[in-house]
Amino acid sequence: MSEADAIGAVRPSDMTGLWPNAVEAAADGVFLLSLDAKYLAANAAFCSLLGETEPSLLGRSYYDVLSNDSIPLAHRAIEMMIRRGQPQRTTVVFQRADREVRTAECHQSFLLHEGRPSAIVTIARDISQEVLLERKLWDVAEEHRAALDFALRTSLGLIKGYVYTLYQHPRIDEARRGRYVQIIEEEVERLTKFAEDLLDYRRLEVGDLYGTNEVVDVVGVVKSVLNGFAREAMRRQVHVETHYDKVRGSLFTSQDSLRRILINLLQNAILYAPVEGTVKVSLQDSEEALEVLIEDDGPGIPPEEMGHIFEKFYRGRVAEKAIGTGLGLAIAGTLAESLGGSIEVESPPGRGALFRLRLSRKGCTGRNMKDEPEPREERSNPVAIED
After folding, report:
1. Average pLDDT, stretch 341-364?
2. Which of 80, 126, 224, 370 is 20 to 30 Å from 380 by CA-CA measure?
3. Would you identify the CATH topology of the domain 213-360?
4. The pLDDT value given to residue 281
């Protein structure tokens, strides 16, 4: 059968709307190969994956755009499918024209015409970010791997379990359905934070810091970050008190870095505060510096652990009970130093912890921003946490 006949077999005249509507809209890459592994068609997602256009692919060999290491794997998968008549799954690396690579998980099966194979359809899911995350995850000291692996697998296991339950029991009552969906959302958020911590710390290690310096309304940034945690605080039944009404918090600094520091510190405080506990957020202003204080009434930090909490992957006895990477405080400390500031910690035994972020008004530029009149406005949703 010729290539033209194969295309006609899988896209007959009475199904002309199926390909553009179903395949072109797919988020994953979809492409057709002839039985001798030449491209017959490709959707927009696959062309984007390769950085090619469909006309540039048609007639070319499937193996032309694969890395050298992937060619034997891809060839074997097609050979096994032809020999056994069964769908195959394999992971291959595509070599783009711009020399970048993309890793994809490919599911291949036959399209039949009059009961005989006429072409090979492949669904290619881009897993490049997952592969990158896995490499980042395992590029750590051996003693940290078990904890990271446990955290990752725990969240993935919960998501998979509850998705399966919802799928198998479509008539489940609304209360339980809502609870299961909430758990899935929480674990997705946890995995997102997990990935962000791993990737962001790598960025910091190579000196790729957050944003550029500008005049920032620190109070606005604090309020915005608090808004983002309103739901989490409510879910954990943690009351958040704020004290910064009389502070004029203009500072020449990196807003992106400041935001990330505050997110990590506040997340820590809410995580370790007890049920019906309190987290206090306040600002102190002076000629030399502006300080953000975040205090919780949780179990506190044992004296022997105080010198280690800013080390990457460090998790103390209390932290071991919660899922995490052990990178949050390491990132916050590194970013604070990059802004010419510091983070100090006070933790009387059994009486919670106080994190004091101190940012110099002169920062790295030598500019005193005490009286700067026009800080950048920080957009935020209506504040859900009372002052």
Report:
1. 85
2. 370
3. Heat Shock Protein 90 (3.30.565)
4. 93
